[in-house]
Amino acid sequence: MTEDYLTIIWKTQEWPRDPVSTTEIASILSVTPSSVSANLKKLAREGLIDYEPYGRIDLTPAGREIAVTVVRRHRVLETYLVECLGLSWDEVHGEADALEHAVSDLVLNRMDDLLGNPAFDPHGDPIPRADGTVERVDATRLTEAQTDSRVLVVRISDREPTILRYLEARAISIGTRLRVESRDVEAGSLSVRRASAADGCEEPVDVATGAARAVWVSVDSPG
């Protein structure tokens, strides 16, 4: 329970967004908000979070250390499962969840070395280093990108495997270059042009707003 709560709080603060709420944590863990509140109070008493009911939830240094350790395990495992075992990016989240508490530091570090110590996992999330440092990325949601801007996909949330499959079917993944064309609020979609990796030609693609919110982009600087 402790590690689950701490990693959820850490992940929600990793990318720019509103502070995490008890309701959101309850939704992620499929428990009641009252249960979340009780557990948050317990974590606060243990010195792992700073928390006041209805206030902001923040990790203490001790809580952050635990969260970063678990996140590192999870993301190294996800990367290993994709790169070495050939699993697809929509399959690995649950598998890594099952493995992250069982793998020793020795095995995890050997996996990391075998992979070449990658800075990011298959979904574009930074992999914390063994010393706890984390590479930060300046990015925003695709839904917030300006019209006619050229952007580079740098991260896709792995919370919903169906969204990963939806985007993969539209050839949108980490490293894809897009140009934002327009938004259709009534239809709930975003029109973009996707640059072909082969020749750079642009192809029109419509992306549902819900899926576009899972995509994080940075300003593209070709070449």
Automatic annotation (TrEMBL):
One of its GO terms (cellular component) is cytoplasm. InterPro entries: ArsR-like_HTH, DtxR_MntR_Metal-Reg, Fe-transptr_FeoA-like, Fe_dep_repressor, Fe_dep_repressor_sf, FeoA_core_dom, HTH_CRP, HTH_DTXR. One of its GO terms (biological process) is negative regulation of DNA-templated transcription. It is found in: Cytoplasm. Its main location: cytoplasm. Keywords: Activator, Cytoplasm, DNA-binding, Iron, Manganese, Repressor, Transcription, Transcription regulation. Residues 1-60 form the HTH dtxR-type domain. Homodimer. Belongs to the DtxR/MntR family. This is Manganese transport regulator. It comes from mine drainage metagenome.
